[in-house]
Amino acid sequence: MGASAEAELARSFKRDDHYTPQLLWSLTAEDWRQYRLSAGRYSPDDAAGKIAKAIEAVKEQLRPRSGEASDQPPLYPFFISDRRKPN
After folding, report:
1. Residues 76, 62: contact at Cβ < 8 Å?
2. Would you give the distance in Å from CA 9 to the centre of its chain?
3. Three-point CA angle 56, 59, 65, nearest 5°
4. DSSP string, 43-87
5. DSSP element (H, E) containing 10
6. pTM to 2 decimal places
7. What's the confidence (pLDDT) of residue 75?
8. For residue 31, which of 2, 19, 55, 64 is within the disulfide window of CB 3.0 to 4.6 Å?
9. Separation of first and last alpha carbons in the chain
10. C-alpha 69: how far from its chain's center?
11. Residue 41 to residue 63: CA distance in whole angstroms
């Protein structure tokens, strides 16, 4: 959309006994107009279709490949690490 980070409020939200920051974003009127012209209308059916396609794409990536050892659980990309290398 073209928004840019402008500032951070260091003590914006109080949670329990500590404060957390909030990032403030800005968008120029021209960027907003260009976005609205190119974005088109929102369609619930189109959004549901895109979500379903994304879910299927992730499932496909997580399916075991042929030739993989079946006695091992599948590894997910965001959990893969090399135990031989120190963190």
Report:
1. yes
2. 23
3. 130
4. -HHHHHHHHHHHHHHHHHHHSPPTTS-TTSPPPPGGG---TTS--
5. strand 4-15
6. 0.35
7. 55
8. 2
9. 36
10. 30
11. 35
Enter the tokens of residue 16: 């329990």
Structure tokens at 81: 């690490």
pLDDT of 23 strictly over 60: yes
Amino acid at 54: A
> What's the gap between Cα 27 and its chain centre?
21
Backbone angles phi, psi at 18, to 5 degrees: -140, 165
Question: In this predicted model, what pLDDT tens digit does every residue of 41-69 receive, in sequence order?
Answer: 778 898 899 999 999 998 888 777 776 55
Tokens coding 35: 């976005």
